[in-house]
């Protein structure tokens, strides 16, 4: 925890989706959060314009330093594809180290036919760079509880140094229960992505079916919690405050 203080919520730039689609850059959106009670920010690879991406990453790195935020990056790809490891990974790891990005998130994909030799090669690659990589459960057949469990076990047995971003919303879209998934994977979680869902649509916290307060109270206190859904600007402070209240209560007890 930062300076002995309680943890604060973190934000993924999905919270600004409408504004980015209307033409704002992720940097411009994040600048509006300067001084806010947040710990980390996560940008999304698919929301950059290729021609301005490097400059923007450098400026976001500067903004993170000013605000004492840690810098995370979401890769819009999957790590495994049947019998292959994503060949773009090293490019992202270099980009991360160049911009002080501490963590990269990528979808798991399907590792079923990936060999032990390939996993060893992946381990060696991950160990060459400062940035950590986490895999995320996705709302598709590779992200069901059973399939994801098998894949996590395979990676653990091979001692591949990957973290796990638990996305609380993605379970709904494949008719799985987030609480069941949380119980199953709690010990593996290193990052938590928070959404509230109602009738398979993302809603504001408290308006959906997710028992999110209970999940946060059970979460290990050093695991960052990211808001990752489009939030109207007039509701953002309230959503941040709701999570910070729970984290503050949890960490004070």
UniProtKB/TrEMBL annotation:
User: So which residues are the signal peptide here?
Assistant: none
Q: Name one Pfam family in it.
A: AP_endonuc_2
Top-level taxon of origin: Bacteria
Q: Where is the Xylose isomerase-like TIM barrel domain?
A: 118-229
InterPro entries (UniProt xref):
Xyl_isomerase-like_sf, Xyl_isomerase-like_TIM-brl
Q: What is this protein called?
A: Xylose isomerase-like TIM barrel domain-containing protein
Q: What is the lineage of its organism?
A: Bacteria, Bacillati, Bacillota, Bacilli, Lactobacillales
